[in-house]
Design a protein that fits this description.
Elements (H helix, E strand, L loop, with lengths): L1 H31 L8 E8 L5 E5 L12 H12 L6 E6 L8 E2 L3 E4 L19 H12 L4 E2 L3 E4 L14 H4 L16 E7 L9 E6 L6 E4 L2 E3 L5 E5 L6 E9 L5 E6 L3 H15 L3 E2 L3 E3 H4 L10 E7 L3 H11 L2 H16 L4 H16 L20 H13 L3 H5 L24 E8 L2 E9 L5 E9 L5 H16 L2
Parallel strand pairs: 4-6, 5-7, 6-15, 7-16, 10-13, 11-13
Antiparallel strand pairs: 1-2, 1-20, 3-5, 3-17, 8-9, 8-14, 12-13, 18-19, 19-20
Helix pairs in contact: 1-12, 2-7, 2-8, 3-5, 7-8, 8-9
């Protein structure tokens, strides 16, 4: 009797497992064979975290562009190599003495350390975004400076001057999501353009103001009014170029429609902002503001300068949380550069990506992974579902597993997953990063099923027909099937 009971129990669980796998398999196959996906590429994998065994896969070794799920590699590697409490630092130096009258007979050097949180709207309210400038003035006053006889020189050279990672498109770099990393980033390297639109279709728009003010910046406005909803404009402009061209359309009858663009030269903007703050303060300053890039300094020797004070940025884990929850491209790119600078002293994007690829190849034996940026904006990235699930499995065992897990949005509840699986089986059970670009949709993360099973998963589709919104809804069926197991 006991043997029969044991047999029935085993049979019950086996049938339930088979049913669950069949349900998931049906969901994946339905997604893959959807008529709108017949010319698309799909990569999917589900791994049981307790056994490391593959629960289900489809073309899981195929590499492709994955959009913002690429950020998982940037955030995970930064956690592993820098630790959650790492803070990027901006350092102030002087190259002259302070006399008895409080006159600094020399220059102030502001040496950037790649802090992406400096003046960031993600950490400070609008009215307090630039409070750091006043704090910097107070630090100079503390050491007795009343007059600066020299200049303000900003130095963003620790990240180099490429301006943007390789593989970024011309159509992206002038827009807010295409703001590149800098050794001296400020205010998210963001500019707000305020437009007044016409009352008729195809009427010219008026660029009323730009905030913050950027000296020498010129916009050529070709944006027209339209019946289309939302922002359908595009800003074109290369890093460091003060010429910007805006095309596309904005909705009719808008008195103040805000379009977000990227700051061309953050290093120069910091110099300008601090010079303006000094002019408003009690410190006398009649000099100029300059940048290391424009001065074309081949060698910048801080050993012969005096460190005055250091400004520390926000903790790395807090930056990672913002990166994954809100999918901030700029922050992800900064993480790549911070890794490179910390490990080699060369904070370029290229060096950081080399370190990331090498790190995971050594840890997990990766082959055929290609990273050309840290945010996923580049369509030249090539990552498979297996790459993601291997990374996720490893991070589940890392000493920073809790920090990494809690940096992920929750389906139906938070971040970029707030509308995913809302009111469905997957709500509160899917913890993942999403990725979205034209003709690309992806998710990668963890799913905790109703039976107590915990999985790592990844799914990417390239070049589907139809809307990305419809693709998302079809992916939800797969997530719910996993959650119901």
């Amino acid at each position: 009797m006991k043997i029969l009971s044991l047999f029935l129990i085993i049979l019950f669980y086996a049938l339930n497992l088979t049913f669950a796998q069949s349900t998931l398999g049906n969901a994946v196959q339905k997604f893959v064979k959807d008529p709108l996906h017949q010319n698309a590429s799909v990569s999917f994998k589900l791994v049981d975290l307790s056994t490391k065994k593959t629960a289900y896969s489809f073309d899981s070794e195929r590499t492709m562009a994955t959009a913002s799920t690429t950020k998982l590699f940037s955030t995970a590697t930064a956690l592993e190599l820098l630790g959650p409490n790492y803070r990027a630092k901006t350092r102030f130096y002087s190259d002259g003495n302070i006399d008895s009258n409080g006159v600094l007979n020399g220059n102030i050097w502001i040496r950037g350390g790649g802090d992406p949180s400096l003046g960031s709207k993600y950490f400070f309210s609008e009215e307090h975004q630039y409070d750091f400038l006043q704090n910097w003035v107070k630090e100079l006053q503390k050491i007795g400076i009343k007059t600066i006889a020299g200049n303000i020189i900003t130095d963003a050279s620790e990240f180099g001057y490429n301006g943007a990672p390789d593989g970024w498109s011309w159509v992206d770099m002038g827009n807010y999501y295409g703001a590149g990393p800098s050794g001296l980033t400020v205010g998210d390297n963001l500019i707000q353009l305020h437009f007044k639109t016409g009352s008729k279709v195809n009427q010219s728009t008026v660029l009323v103001k730009i905030h913050p003010f950027v000296p020498e910046l010129m916009y050529h406005n070709y944006v027209l009014s339209s019946q289309r909803r939302g922002d359908n404009s595009y800003i074109y402009g290369a890093p460091f170029s003060m010429d910007r061209f805006i095309t596309g359309t904005l909705p009719v009858n808008k008195e103040d429609f805000i379009v977000k663009g990227s700051l061309p030269d953050p290093e120069k903007q910091v110099a300008y902002l601090f010079a303006q703050e000094l002019i408003k303060s009690e410190i006398q300053f009649n000099g100029h503001y300059k940048t290391v890039r424009e001065m074309d300094l081949s060698k910048n020797d801080y050993d012969n300068r005096t460190l005055i004070f250091t400004h520390s940025g926000e903790r790395l884990i807090d930056i990672i949380n913002k990166t994954n929850f809100k999918s901030i491209n700029l922050f992800a790119e900064h993480l790549v550069c911070l890794i490179a600078y910390k490990k080699t002293g060369n904070g370029s994007s290229r060096k950081g990506l080399e370190i990331i690829e090498s790190y995971w190849k050594n840890k997990l034996g990766f082959t055929s992974i290609h990273l050309t940026d840290g945010s996923g904006l580049s369509r030249m990235n090539a990552i498979s579902a297996t790459h993601f699930t291997s990374l996720l499995y490893y991070m589940n065992t890392s000493k920073y597993s809790k920090e990494f897990f809690h940096s992920l949005p929750v389906a139906g509840e938070s971040g970029t997953l707030k509308v995913i699986c809302r009111g469905q089986a997957g709500q509160g059970r899917v913890f993942a990063k999403s990725g979205t670009m034209r003709r690309i949709k992806s998710y990668a993360g963890y799913i905790h099923s109703k039976s107590g099973k915990k999985y790592a998963f990844a799914i990417t589709i390239n070049n589907p027909e139809g809307s990305i919104r419809n693709v998302r809804k079809k992916m939800e069926v797969i997530f719910n099937a996993i959650a119901n197991q």
